[in-house]
Amino acid sequence: MLVGADVVRTAGLPALGRQEQPLGEVDGGFRLAMRTLDLFRPSVGASVIGMAQAALDAAVAHASNRQAFGRPIREFQAVSHQLAEMATRLEAARALVYAAAEAYDRGDQRVARRSAMAKLFATETAQQVIDAAIQVHGAVALERGHLLEHLYREVRAPRIYEGTSEIQREIIARDLFRQAAKD
Ligand SMILES: Cc1cc2nc3c(=O)[nH]c(=O)nc-3n(C[C@H](O)[C@H](O)[C@H](O)COP(=O)(O)OP(=O)(O)OC[C@H]3O[C@@H](n4cnc5c(N)ncnc54)[C@H](O)[C@@H]3O)c2cc1C
Known about the structure:
It is a single chain. By secondary structure, the protein is mainly α. It has 5 helices and 2 strands. The protein has a two-stranded antiparallel sheet.
């Protein structure tokens, strides 16, 4: 069913649903779910940053070892500039994820917006970085079982779960308008 994601079956939890053991406040379920997403979205960002960092490391190593036209391919500016771009975007994504995690820990009022930005930017960036790492590798990265072939499949789902990229943009835009109405 899924593009490369490893799935596990879900199971019912018999302890849930007992009236004497509510999870959180009664009638506070939606708020609780939203607060949980504020935490999970930076976590998704952190996980894809790990994937993208692995892809960047692999690309740097490959570009240093792979020879073409008598030299390592990292000596071609078309390759080295791609690596620089990947590293820069990844660093920006990491900074947004740290900022959202710090906002969550601090109980910041704007955490929903920060978490949405972190998830949106990190997942979209990770996909770009992994795609670029494949380009630097050439055909070898497309072989089944190659690290990048695996990452290319794994990085797709995070743009969908915990709220799609479109929903993150909705959250950010709504917060912008809310803020503008206050100012
Ligand atoms: C690997 C994986 C694990 C998952 N784990 C869980 C889980 O543990 N628990 C759980 O509850 N769910 C889980 N999901 C489901 C996930 O949350 C949904 O797939 C996701 O919310 C999108 O819903 P959908 O697939 O029904 O797409 P749809 O809601 O049908 O969306 C289809 C498209 O329409 C766009 N769209 C929809 N509504 C709007 C809107 N209002 N504004 C703009 N664009 C919109 C979406 O962005 C998307 O591009 C998981 C999904 C995956 C892939």
